[in-house]
Amino acid sequence: MAPELNGPVVGSRIAPTLDVAFPAPLVEVSGLPNGFPAMLDSPLAWSGRQFKSDSDYVFRLEEAHLIEIDRALQEFKKLGLDGDLVSTQNFALPTLGPKLFDLQRDIYCGKGFGLVRGLDPQRYSVEDLTTIYMGIQCYIANLQGRQDKKGNMLASRPDLVRVLARSDWPFALPRFQCRPVLFYHDRRIISNFGRAALLGSASHVRPDRLPKLNSIQIEALDAIERIAQATQLEITTQAGDIHFINNLAVLHRREGFTNGSSTTEKRHLVRMRLRDSEMGWSIPNDLKDEWVETFDPKLNRVWHLESMPDGFFPLRSQAN
Length: 320
Hints:
Low-confidence stretches: 1-27, 147-151, 310-320
Domain TauD/TfdA-like: 170-272
Organism: Metarhizium anisopliae (strain ARSEF 549)
Mean pLDDT: 80
Strand order of the largest sheet: 1-2-8
Keywords: Dioxygenase, Oxidoreductase
Strand content: 5-15%
Helix content: 25-40%
Largest sheet: 3 strands, mixed
Number of helices: 8
Protein name: Taurine catabolism dioxygenase TauD/TfdA
Radius of gyration: 20 Å
InterPro entries: TauD-like_sf (IPR042098), TauD/TfdA-like (IPR003819)
Structural class: alpha+beta
Distance between the termini: 21 Å
Order of helices and strands: EHHEHEHHEEEEHHEEH
């Protein structure tokens, strides 16, 4: 990833420190919304430069872990179950499992992200690799969604925090809805949005009939991007990596990629929305309908195991 590009990143380069200069506060509003904390004192309020090496957020699988994963895969296949029925009960990882539970706690209660590295995708069929991914994931979160920054802004621009917490943001995805970008719910700062849902993009053209953002809202989004650039962490993904991100707390993006001619030069990413029934955060009312729809166990799930054609975006039935 190139640090000069716009946009929030969790993205193993540490981005250069940037000065974040804010314009004067807006005249018509002042102070934080009711209930919001004056500052964010949390492990989630990190800056990319505080991570001195990728060992701070990458868990590397050892040979014993890989043997354990292979054994769990073979035992699960003997059950004759579909891959989406994998669980901690039928995909036993006695040594690796506790390490993954530590990662789970860090995602929900710590810095909000982590990465599991060391799987070799070339060793497995597509189906077996997917089962392994889901077997590891079930130790992080036991629910699978249906497929189809921070403290310095609180201190420097409380007026923009107020703007972000208003209910007049016109989201176009997954359906037209006006709701806040930023929530303070159950004593947590929660942010859940994508720029495409608010401004449109080449792949998701915003219908002309929908209301546009006003200048104050655009200023607030630009402030988020400046803070994200100043605090970003860039992660260089390797084949077989599994990224886990708390999407209610950490902003993230992917860098563009051009496939090469050989198999090893092609990128295939599969995104899954996960939630743990015990560790999962309480959801603000404005987001509950989307969460219920996403994690409804009665709805069909589709796993895109093979790469889809360019321009195919099955995951965009939900905005984030």
